[in-house]
Every structure is written in C-alpha cells, then in structure tokens.
Design a protein that fits this description.
Family: Belongs to the acetyltransferase family. RimJ subfamily.
Helix content: 25-40%
Number of strands: 9
Keywords: Acyltransferase, Transferase
GO cellular component, one term: cytoplasm
Shape: globular
Protein name: N-acetyltransferase
InterPro entries: Acyl_CoA_acyltransferase, GNAT_dom, N-acetyltransferase
Low-confidence stretches: none
CATH architecture of the domain at 3-136: 3-Layer(aba) Sandwich
Structural class: alpha+beta
Length: 192
C-alpha cells in the first residue's frame, strides 16, 4: 500500500504513506535525527561514504550544501523515513545519481535500532513507485558492496535483477570488495 499524500512540485518529492511508514521531506529541524545514524560507521561505511564527524558538520551540510548538490546533479529531494505515530527520522532513501536515459540510482540508510524490521524494503518500494509513476523513469538501480547483505536483500526482495559485478572495487577502508549493480525496469515493476 502506497498513498501519495501531496502533489509533486518538480523539486520536492511529495509526502508518501505506506502501511507502517511516512516518507517526508527532511528539514533543518531533523538534523539531530539524521546525525544519529549518519555518524555511525556501521551505517555509513557499508553504504560507501564516511560517517559525519560532528553535529555541526551535518547542520552545515544540510543548510548549505544538500539542496545545492541536488540542483547540480538535477535530482529531486529524497525522503526522511518515519514510523507512523512518530516524527523522528529513522532513515533516508534518495535518488543519489542520475544516469542517462531516465535512469536514477537509489541509495538508503537506516538507524541500526530499526534494522531487521522490514522498514527499508517498504520505504524503497514507495520510492520506486514515485520513480515510475511521478517521475516517469525508465529504470532504477541499486549499487552495493557484495558484503552488504542487508542492502542486497532489499534489492532482491523488491525484484531487482543483478546486472553486473564490478570486481575488486576499493572501499573507503581500502579493502578490495565487489560492487554489485542491481536494476529494475519500469515494465518489470508493472508486471509484478
């Protein structure tokens, strides 16, 4: 169940409701919630970026760089994930890269307190629906390290096809890992 609760203005994705979650725009008031998981190595390193060092760094990024980066990459804003009944941001799901020919890459993070509850597949399924119904994309991709089992499970659970393995990719800690590229075409999503 995905209910789109607002109109899409071309920049800010509309608020979305799923069975257990609300996906909404993040605001400066959410910075402490964002920092609570974006500062954790166990969340950030498997996703391929360094943890945020300080709350001030997160505040600075959100106030001064986040929307600028979106504009430079020609991407819509993404979502903060909340559990119904709470306004606390527990994770995020975004389009983090635009590729040619109406193809966006999806990225996501979740606070460890909420791992193993099925929230991320639910949130990403909603983002995929927005991608294909509002943004009229042709395809969405998920990239993750082969060692990131939770991220792999999200892609596989949502019907993505493993399209490529980029061997011996160097992660942020200098380890050699395989990077997996998963893809889901709009027509495959419609046929599910």
């Amino acid at each position: 169940m995905v209910n789109i609760l607002e109109d899409y203005d071309g920049q800010f994705l509309p608020k979305v409701e799923t069975e257990r979650l609300i996906l909404r725009q993040r605001t400066v008031e959410d910075v402490e919630d964002l920092f609570s998981y974006a500062s954790l190595p166990e969340v950030c390193l498997p996703a391929g970026f360094p943890p945020i060092a300080t709350l001030e760094e997160e505040q600075e990024y959100f106030e001064n760089k986040y929307f600028q980066n979106l504009a430079e990459k020609d991407l819509p804003s993404g979502y903060g994930i909340t559990v119904k009944g709470s306004n606390r941001i527990i994770g995020s799901c975004d389009f983090n890269h635009r590729r040619a020919d109406a193809v966006f890459e999806i990225g996501y993070l979740l606070h460890p307190d909420f791992w193993g509850k099925g929230y991320m597949p639910e949130a990403v399924a909603a983002l995929i629906e927005v991608a294909f119904t509002l943004l009229h994309l042709h395809k969405v991709e998920i990239r993750c390290y082969s060692s990131n089992q939770p991220s792999r499970r999200v892609a596989e659970k949502l019907g993505f096809t493993l399209e490529a393995t980029i061997r011996d990719y160097k992660d942020l800690e200098g380890n050699r890992v395989d990077e997996l590229v998963y893809g889901l075409l709009k027509r495959e999503w419609e046929e599910r």
